[in-house]
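Posting for a labmate who doesn't have an account.
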Amino acid sequence: MSSRRGRGPGLSAFQNNSSLASSYAMHGDALKAANMEALKTQLSVFQSLVHNFALTHAEKIKQDPALRNEFHRMCTSIGVDPAAATNAAVSKKGAGGGGFFSMMAGRDDKEFVARVALRVVEVCRASREENGGLLGVEECRQRVAKGKGVGGAMDVTSDDVLRAVESLKPLSGGFSIITVGSRKMIRSIPKELSTDQSTVLEAIQIQGFVTVSMLEDNLNWENARAETVIEDLLSASLVWVDAKAPEKEYWSPAFMHDDD
């Protein structure tokens, strides 16, 4: 008897523990499934509210570009395609089967983005000689809003411009968004910026201009490296030179606009 009392738990104890763990796992899966269904229901209700909001406030969304972009962002975050066909409730109100943006802004979203993209291309090409194909997103928005060229003035936001540039990527025309320092820029040339070139442009954004000696002292670059990068930027028209300064100063036209 004493030897039997000294033994550890038997096989039945392990089986009980295994059954208990299995029961917990099944209960956990059931809770996950219930929570997922609840989330799906909540999302469906929210999507319906978004539809109703678009119907009720169509004119206001049409007139306010900031609200239009916030609405677009919200639609994207909850899986509603602003350019997709509207639901039956929208059709009953006479939307004619158009997309959200055609209903609320009087035009299809893709058509609107295409119009903005056309203006962005025009603005970038017109300014390429002065900035070497590197234009601030906000400056581009301002030029599009002024309405010089095809399409006239367009009331757009920076988000509209970003979406327009994104739509140009499949065309392989060299248009893309890059970040230099704290600013988003539109690059309209196929050539990629090197790390050194990006570093110099970021320094210009912070300091206003750079000199070869500034690059040598602050970045610990050899003279040949600094001179090479500057020459490459000059040849691409990404920087201008002030030869009248005691030491040549190099400025970027892309950062000469205080409005950005």
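Reply:
Got it, the structure tokens are right above this. The radius of gyration is 30 Å.
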